[in-house]
Design a protein that fits this description.
TIM Barrel; binds zinc ion
Length: about 375
């Protein structure tokens, strides 16, 4: 196993929102940036990834309704990402799903951006479609990109769009984001709350899970409410995976997983990726960037206690969340690895957490 530049095993990460961040429509505000130059905003570019030993990750494509995209104060085309979670009310629930054609055109542009990124990388980046390709990238220092939908909004119930996006490279689908679509509704971004909030899968949602299963596309349970979680668990024969969620007992956000859910994930030989968002890490749920790295490691240790060392990895939510200041961005990842190592984990365990478990669960789900 080739060690990353950081001295630690290379990290493969379960979630980032870098595509929208590069476009200047993300958490770090307007203006956009290059993936190949070191930026002083956002969390991931290739330079900082190399510095921190980040070898790749799930790149989320999230279709968003135009109505939720507020123009930036500077007028330069940026987006108020806080609008993404807006629209939920305890009385009225969620606004209606976004139209399919709107979601599809958004997804096509985001996918196109990632193919451009691979094309322009001169062999430094590769879109991976099998676990073997992923492992090869990690071994050879090629930055691995996994194509992910955060929200199934661009997929039609008949399954035709899934065939097209699969052919292009789509390998994982989160059923929903902080929204409602025709398949299910996500959990709202409120604290504290049980994840048992809202209805489960619609009939179309159940059919979608079957379609994804047949295509061996990973179904991501992050953002799903508890009813949806258990219904998916009843339908799928693949390992249960939450790409970027934490333990609910440690932080009572509905985005996190209860002990019962963690037990089901363990039972299925599935996987949870640690989310670095302060609001999902902290006991008080506060959006406070002065959060020590030890809080992240406390979450990791809890997850390992419940799931075992073979079912825990990283799922940063880089470029889509408030990351603790001491970590800052992808270049800070060795500090996280060091803090985990200091709790007594050896190189074999660190390798599993860094990427080994992701390679295992993806190979098992994708069948290649
Ligand atoms: Zn997310």
């Amino acid at each position: 196993m080739t060690a990353g530049k950081s001295g630690y095993p290379p990290i493969f990460d379960g979630h980032n929102d870098t595509v929208i961040s590069l476009a200047g429509e993300g958490f770090d505000g307007p203006g956009g940036r290059s993936f190949y130059e070191r930026a002083d905003k956002g969390h991931i570019d290739l330079v900082r990834a190399r510095e921190g030993g980040l070898g790749g990750g799930f790149f989320a494509v999230m279709a968003r309704p135009k109505a939720s995209v507020a123009p930036s104060a500077s007028g330069s085309g940026g987006v108020d990402i806080s609008a993404v979670g807006r629209g939920y009310s305890p009385e009225g629930g969620w606004p209606p799903p976004m139209p399919l054609d709107e979601a599809q055109s958004d997804a096509l542009i985001r996918f196109g951006k990632l193919f451009e990124l691979e094309r322009d990388s001169e062999g430094q980046c590769k879109i991976v479609r099998t676990a073997a390709e992923l492992q090869e990238c990690l071994d050879n220092g090629i930055f691995a990109i996994e194509l992910h939908f955060e929200g199934a909004d661009p997929l039609d119930p008949g399954g035709q769009a899934l065939e097209v996006f699969y052919a292009a490279g789509l390998r994982s689908v989160g059923l929903t984001h902080f929204r409602q679509n025709i398949y299910c509704a996500g959990v709202p971004n409120i604290f504290p709350s049980s994840p048992d909030i809202g209805e489960g899968l619609t009939d179309a949602g159940k059919e979608l899970v079957r379609q994804l299963n047949r295509r061996k596309v990973l179904v991501d349970l992050s953002h799903a409410n508890e009813k949806t979680f258990w219904e998916v668990a009843g339908i799928t024969d693949a390992p249960l995976v939450a790409t970027h969620s934490n333990a609910w007992e440690m932080s009572n956000s509905p985005r996190n997983l209860t002990d019962k859910q963690l037990a089901a994930i363990r039972e299925s030989n599935g996987m949870v990726g640690l989310n670095y968002h302060c609001g999902f890490l902290r006991k008080d749920g506060e959006m406070n960037p002065d959060t020590p790295i030890s809080v992240m490691v406390d979450q990791i240790e809890y997850l390992i206690d419940k799931l075992g060392i073979d079912c825990v990895g990283l799922g940063s939510d880089f470029d889509g969340s408030m990351v603790p200041n001491p970590l800052k961005d992808a270049a800070g990842l060795p500090k996280l690895m060091e803090a985990i190592e200091e709790r007594g984990y050896d190189n074999a365990a660190l390798t599993k957490i860094a990427h080994g478990n992701w390679v295992r669960v993806l190979g098992q789900t994708w069948g290649a």
